[in-house]
Amino acid sequence: MNRRLKKIRKAKQKEIRAIRNRFRPEVYKAAAYSVGSDFRSLEVTAKTARRLPLLVEIRSVLWPDEMVLHNFEPLRVVRELCRRGHLAGALVATDERFLGGNPGWINLLKYNTDISVLQRDFYFDPVQIYQAKAIGADAVVIDLEWSEVQQVPALVEAAFEMGLEAFLKVADPAMLREVPVDGVSGVFFPLPETESGRLNFPRLQTLLDVAPRNVLKMAVGYPGNASDVARLVASGVQALMLDDRLWRVPRFAEAFQQISRWSMQYPLQQGD
Q: Where are the domains of the chain?
């Protein structure tokens, strides 16, 4: 276990103990479920989309260099992206210490935009999923780099109980051989690149062939041109989350607009 993961696990276990000491799980679950909020399904959006759905991750600390986005205003940023193109959803960080996120950003976006809002955190216990429901998330994204394989079924089951969609984020779809995908709506995986930084499409096709057919296949990366987008669509990628390179561009809204325009050129061929 690397040093960063040890710190994250220690901090999250402290948060989990605080929740469990204050509330019995069944009480917390009932309270969370009673919270009213419009549900926006990313799964439905992706399965019915005619163009490649685009998503972004909202957090103020970028990895691996821990670059801080000072004076980051998530609502202003998301509204600008929505104005510039067809933003389908946002993966919102709620961990403050390691991701520079904020739980309040979930409802901020839910009440002021029409996009799907997914929660990004480090999940180790179902009570965190109940909490996601309580703060208004539409879905949770469980990153297998930070959650142990044996924890995943309980986390996915908790999402199902709360009426949330559960997505997995994996370093390689081959990892899915070790994880049950029952109840999972989709999988995010990084787009492979060559040593020169170009998208590696032969490798991408191999990864897509490994992923289960019954889940959405969603990529995380940064296309460099219209041809990249065309090949992503042709390969069967069903949604694209732009990675941190978007926020490192001085004119990120214009960069997003360009990628959105590229995606408009290539209609999706939706299957069953």
A: 3-264
Q: How many other CB atoms sit within 10 Å of the CB of residue 47?
A: 18
**What type of residue sits at position 135?**
I
Phi, psi of 178, rounded to the nearest 5 degrees? -95, -5
Distance of CA 126 to the CA centre of its chain: 18
3-state secondary structure of 129: helix
Rounded CA gap, 219 and 188, in Å?
5
Q: Which helix (H) or strand (E) holds 234?
A: helix 226-235
Say what the pTM is: 0.95
Per-residue pLDDT of the chain (272 residues; tens, 9 = 90+): 588 889 999 999 999 999 888 888 788 788 887 876 799 999 999 999 999 999 999 999 999 899 999 999 999 999 999 999 999 999 999 999 999 999 999 999 999 999 999 999 999 999 999 999 999 999 999 999 888 889 999 999 999 999 999 999 998 887 888 888 999 999 999 999 999 999 999 999 988 888 888 899 999 999 999 999 999 999 999 999 999 999 999 999 999 999 999 999 999 976 54
**Which stretches within 23-151 are classed as H helix?**
25-33, 42-48, 74-84, 96-99, 104-112, 126-134
Q: Which CATH architecture has domain 3-264?
A: Alpha-Beta Barrel (3.20)
* Torsion 236-272-53-226 (CA) sign: positive
Does a cis peptide bond (omega within 30 degrees of 0) precede residue 223?
Answer: no
- Amino acid identity, residue 182? D
